[in-house]
């Protein structure tokens, strides 16, 4: 079995630096990556296997070894992660291997690899789920007709497409959360409505209440327990792991979870809540408009960019609007570009729509 099989199973070889998106971006935006370099590294030994038959323990362990060794040799921030989280990822190899060995099917294997990578606690280190693959495929709509280059497009590769069809049919990544959320403010988790159309009062929780416990875990203990489930943040002032916007997760819709709060009046409040299904409306996120404003006439202009949209069509559409605004304010001495709450996205959005129009000399991007 080829060591490169891990790519077609979960695209894990390149997930640390953006997965399929990184591969497409570097091939089609960065000419310094030669055809042979990319082909030999990622595609040469790509073999077609029947995932429906189920991977053997030997195959799972070989893929695990390749992933672990690739990260060990190439990822430079293990010590930084250990200082921040207290979790020594490299020292857990035996634990990871044992859990992989105990998986009974492909789905359990997928979930263990996902858990293992999430424990890195790096925002761009993730499996490319079937949903994410479809999102990238739709967004990175760059039809390649050149024969050689077409071979390197993961969204046109028949083996990768076939394997993701298998995962699409078998992986159902449904997330359940309690119907309230929490904002991390000055070391505390302050309750806010999950849905802007609802109020906390509907759940008997006063506005401004502070989360103390989730079941029997303190709020800080609960956040730390999420290390293998979601990407966390770090409060450098207080030297602890945090989550800027915290959700409380449940395994099933039938679960009940007890929350303990401190009300603004200083009263302890206990509430037992049932979860709802988390629904992310990606199309709504992609349609969030730019905000342009003149704060001080002839002096200060303001531009809010809510997201670095992924689709080339969206990049070009926003680019025209941004460039028109830049022309309008070209003589203003001050421009505020607000990216608060921007979760990132396509680097090309920032380069083409913001950097290029504002610089007056060539800049090398490396």
From TrEMBL:
Pfam assignment, any one: Peptidase_S41
GO molecular function: serine-type peptidase activity
Domain of life from the UniProt record: Bacteria
InterPro entries tied to this protein: ClpP/crotonase-like_dom_sf, Tail-specific_protease
Keyword hit for Transmembrane: yes
An example Gene Ontology biological process: proteolysis
Residue ranges annotated for the Tail specific protease domain, each copy included: 299-361
Transmembrane segments annotated in the record for this chain: 7-28
Keyword terms of this UniProt record: Membrane, Transmembrane, Transmembrane helix
Keyword Cell division: no
Protein name: Tail specific protease domain-containing protein
Organism: Caldanaerobacter subterraneus subsp. yonseiensis KB-1
Taxon lineage: Bacteria, Bacillati, Bacillota, Clostridia, Thermoanaerobacterales
